[in-house]
Specification:
With about 150 residues, the protein is α/β, with parallel strands linked by helices. It has a single domain, classed as Rossmann fold (3-Layer(aba) Sandwich), CATH 3.40.50. The chain is about 55% helix and about 15% strand. A 6-stranded mixed beta sheet has the order 3-2-1-4-6-5, with helices on both faces. Helix 2 packs across helix 3, helix 2 crosses helix 4 and helix 4 runs antiparallel to helix 5. The termini are far apart.
């Protein structure tokens, strides 16, 4: 019985897409809804694996605090949620060749995690289209691939 359950778990986890949600996609899903919210719902229902680095988490939390004035309780909730519901990576490679240095950490994370998708609305990142094994797409395009739009 144990072997069967282990095999089913492996099959289920391998069929899930591994994704990186950039800061604005995460914030849009939390605050505004739309397609980013649908992706967060996929995450909550354990249909995708979200890859996270300390830099991405820090950027999200800082924006929730300083730009959107979230309370300490809300910050604690989202910090815990990010910690408990994502797969953590600690990228060591530092991309320096990208046009927007503020987004290099996302490319570092894509290399460390080997995520299938980087979901973003950033036009400069979207123009790249792909970085190594990671396809860079919008939230709408990702949902279309999953046939959810």
């Amino acid at each position: 019985m144990y072997k069967i359950l282990t095999k089913i778990r492996r099959m289920n986890s391998s069929s899930k897409h591994s994704v990186i949600l950039d800061t604005n996609t995460l914030l849009s899903g939390i605050l505004f809804g739309g397609n980013p919210k649908k992706i967060l719902d996929l995450w909550v229902s354990d249909q995708i694996i979200v890859c996270l680095s300390p830099t991405l988490k820090a950027e999200v939390i800082n924006k929730l605090i300083y730009k959107f004035s979230f309370s300490q309780t809300q910050i604690a909730f989202w910090g815990d949620f990010l910690d408990l519901r994502s797969k953590k990576y600690f990228p060591t490679q530092k991309n320096t060749s990208f046009i927007d240095p503020g987004d290099n950490f996302l490319l570092d994370l894509s290399e460390a995690s080997q995520a299938e998708f980087l979901i973003t609305g950033d036009k400069v990142l979207l123009k790249l289209g792909q970085r190594h094994q990671t396809q860079i797409i919008s939230s709408r395009d990702f949902l279309e691939k999953k046939r959810l739009v």
